[in-house]
Amino acid sequence: MARRKWNLKIIEQVLDGENPFIQIGYTPASSTRKDGETWEDSKGKKWQRKDGRNVSLNSSDTPVLDAINSVSKCSKCGMNVRLYGDRLDKKIFPKTQMCYECLEAEEMIYRVTGKWEEYQQMKILKNHRGALKDFKDKVLESIEFLSKETGKIKETMPDGQELTFSGTSNPKWLIDAKLDLEKVNTELDRINKEIEGIESTIVK
Q: Long-range pairs for 112-120 at CB < 8 Å and ≥24 separation?
């Protein structure tokens, strides 16, 4: 219930034409910080304001951890979901790139402004796009495999005999795979255009 305590305020802000996201985050004081400013929070963690965002200053971080942290931040409030997110945050972040609270706030805005149906349609399209990208990766792997003589395919015949084919033994397999790639690219282009069209109407 605590997560929803600010929903009424968000509705009021939207109706007043304000952007509630500028007030949502895990470091509320960040809006008053200046670039280059450093400080220590109540947990003893050091921060620096850099390029309009709060960056953790942790001398033990390696370049790999820095890279992981950089892609683990909520796209709205900047919270590092990997380090500070709870179960709900970590569940929805991979699909939305947002923490749970920011997703709730965004969905509330679409409900209040009458754009909920368009938002739902956009979510379906993005899920479909994700599935197509996964399929495209598999098709590309197949094309690479079928393009090389070193690729081996084993097949067990009805009589129990096991036969081994090279990736290039049947040119039709490669032709079919390339046709699949063309189809998936065409479908991805179509979906991307639909998503862009919806985003242009609901994202201001």
A: 112/11, 112/14, 112/15, 113/14, 115/201, 115/202, 118/198, 118/201, 118/202, 119/202
**Total structural domains within the chain:** 2
Q: Which domain holds residue 34?
A: 2-112
Q: Could you read off the pLDDT of 110-128 as tens digits, one per residue?
A: 999 999 999 999 999 999 9
Token code pair at residue 92: 């929805």
Domain end, chosen from 67, 86, 112, is at: 112
Model-level pTM? 0.58
Q: Which of 112, 131, 151 is the last residue of a domain?
A: 112
CB 173 within 8 A of CB 146: yes
- Count of CB atoms situated within 10 Å of the CB of 80: 18
- Pull the structure tokens for residue 107: 């969905």
